[in-house]
Each structure stands twice: as C-alpha cells, then as structure tokens.
Amino acid sequence: MSPELEAAIRRLNAAVAQLESAAAARPALATSRGDLETELQLMQDDRARLSVELEGATVRLNEVEAASEHVGRRLQAAIGHVSEVLARAGASGEAAQS
After folding, report:
1. Would the pLDDT of 53 be above 90?
2. Where are the alpha helices (DSSP H) in the chain?
C-alpha cells in the first residue's frame, strides 16, 4: 500500500471515530436539552405565579396604607375634640372657682 493511501485510511478512521463519538453523545445532549427546557418552563411558571402574588400583595399594601391614613386622620380629629373638651372643662372649672 502506498503511504498516501495509508494516511488517507488513518484520516478516514479518525473521522469515523469522531462521528461515532458524536453520535454516541447525541442522546445525552438531547436529554440534557430536554431537562433544560423543562427547568426553563418551571422557572417561567414560578415567575408568573410570583408576579401574580406580588400584584396581590401590592394591592393589599395600598389598601392597608389607605386605611392607616384614614385611621390617622380620625385619630387626630378625636385628639382635637378631646383637647377642646378638656380645655372647656378646665375653663368652666376656673370660672366656677372664681
């Protein structure tokens, strides 16, 4: 056999070996890709669920803040009324003592 033919056969054998190796690795890559796609879908589902939960929590927070402001205004008004009553009671008591 000529040296050129032997070299060509070695290259062909090496190429076939690489092809066989790639073919053997292909199912593992497909499984890995499937696992990644499944994981991505799970992450997207989680993101959507968390987005809905965050929206709900934001609405509840806004409601609580509004209620807190309302209660604060009513409390300030009540404090003002009590202060007026106490001031009038104090003025009445001083007038009665005089």
Report:
1. yes
2. 3-97
Here the tokens at position 87 are 């001031």
Torsion sign (Cα): 46, 47, 52, 53: positive
pLDDT band with cut points at 50, 70 and 90 for residue 95: low
Measured between alpha carbons, how far is 42 from 46 in angstroms, rounded to an integer?
6
Q: What is the pTM of this model?
A: 0.52
- Helix, strand counts (H, E) of the chain: 1, 0
Instruction: State the number of CA atoms in the 13 A half-sphere of 71 facing the CB.
Output: 6
Q: Is 69 exposed, middle or buried (0-12, 13-18, 19+ CB in 10 A)?
A: exposed
